[in-house]
Amino acid sequence: MKYEILVSVVSFISIIFLLFGLKNIIYTCGSGIRALSLGKNFREIRIIKFIINKWETGKKVLIIILFFVLTLCIYLLSGNLVFSLFTGICLEIYVLDLFNSFEEKRKDLLNSQLIEFLNNMAVMLKAGNTVRSIFKSSAGLFKEPLGIYLMETANELELNSTLDGALDRFSQKCRSREADLLASSLKINNKIGGDLIPILDNVTDSIRHNLKLKSKIQTMSIQSRYSSNIISIFPVIVLILMCIFMKEAVMGFFSTVAGVTLLIIGGILEIAGILTIKRITGARG
Q: What is the Cα–Cα distance from 235 to 277, expressed in whole angstroms?
């Protein structure tokens, strides 16, 4: 009994110092990590590209599979179904948040590429090129993710697909409001005619302004977001560690009626707190 109490106290103190150090490290290196994730390294990580591509197309299926996998892993560790369900839900929230952060990084990189694409489009329009020819010639000028979407749109236009239909599918694949704005502008100009260059300049200014505003908000809220993540996940980590080092005592308590009742109440409050914190500190764009 004394040994278990000593292990619990040492583990508790170690976790506090570990999380405090992680918070300072992440806050100090947050800007550098974000910059790298938007650059070459982000594009070359295959697992991230796979997750991003599959995330929006099969989101509901992935959520269900992820929940069952996490719950099964915790159940094999603890042997308690209620504890496994509670822990699995909490961990799934953070894993889903991680996937959403990958999607946000993809959008940030895509929007920065869209600005360059719009500038090139304006130059090529002044040279006398059409929108169809610009999509075809620009497909090989950009890397992922925009390069793939441009290539697919160019292939559709090669098959004599309508410009409006190709633009609709382009915006759907991009999954970005900025891409929707670009597609809508091109479709309207295709119907009513007129000078397209001023429209592209306005779209470029709008995208650039949105990126600056979003970057400013994320910079101002980065410490709050990381601090809230650490605070909200701390009870779950402590429970898992107690299950590892004091499995018989913890699982014995959670096997009683009082233990199950307290676990259900605590689990509901913990999940509600995590969702509330995510809602308050979330800065999705």
A: 14
197 lies in the same domain as 148: yes
Based on the domain organization, do 239 and 103 belong to the same domain?
yes
Please report, in angstroms and rounded to a whole number, the separation of the first and last CA atoms in the chain: 51
Nearest to 108 by CA among 181, 177, 199, 48: 177
Quick check: is 181 in a domain?
A: yes
| Cβ-contact 117, 138 below 8 angstroms | yes
Which residue range is the domain that position 158 belongs to?
Answer: 110-209
Token pair 């500190």 in the structure block, residue: 281
Per-residue pLDDT tens for 225-266? 777 777 777 788 888 787 777 777 777 877 888 888 888 888
Domain count, the chain: 2
Q: How far is CA 44 from CA 47, 55, 207, in A?
A: 9, 18, 25
The residue out of 209, 236, 271 marking a domain boundary is 209
Reported pTM = 0.65
Give me 221's structure tokens: 């809220």
Angstrom distance (rounded) from CA 235 to CA 240: 9
180: its two tokens: 């929707």
Domain boundary at 151, 182, 209, which?
209
